[in-house]
Amino acid sequence: MTKLFSIIAVAIMATTVVSCGQSAEEKAKIEEQAKHTADSISAALEASLAGAMEAATDTAAAAATTAVETATAAATEAHAGH
After folding, report:
1. How far lies 66's CA from each of 6, 35, 54, 59, in Å?
2. Backbone angles phi, psi at 10, to 5 degrees
3. DSSP string, 9-48
4. Is residue 13 a contact partner of residue 21, using CB atoms and an 8 Å limit?
5. pLDDT digits (tens, 9 = 90+) for 53-75
6. What distance in Å separates the CA atoms of residue 63 and residue 38, rounded to the nearest whole number?
7. Is there a contact between 22 and 30 (Cβ–Cβ < 8 Å)?
8. pTM above 0.70?
């Protein structure tokens, strides 16, 4: 009985050791999911940066327009006084 139990225990342990780990298909699937996730994150970052650059450009353009209008108004007032 002990011998039979030992054989069964060894068989279960051997099966566990052999069956543990991922198959090549599972590894490929995990790598594909990781690549897809990385691509999604990259696309989101690019979109975010593009939006930030557009906002910064709009803000700079508005500031430049305001500065030109202010300078033009000051020059017109100075010229009108002479």
Report:
1. 88, 46, 18, 11
2. -65, -40
3. HHHHHHHHHHH-S--HHHHHHHHHHHHHHHHHHHHHHHHH
4. no
5. 887 787 777 766 776 667 676 66
6. 37
7. yes
8. no
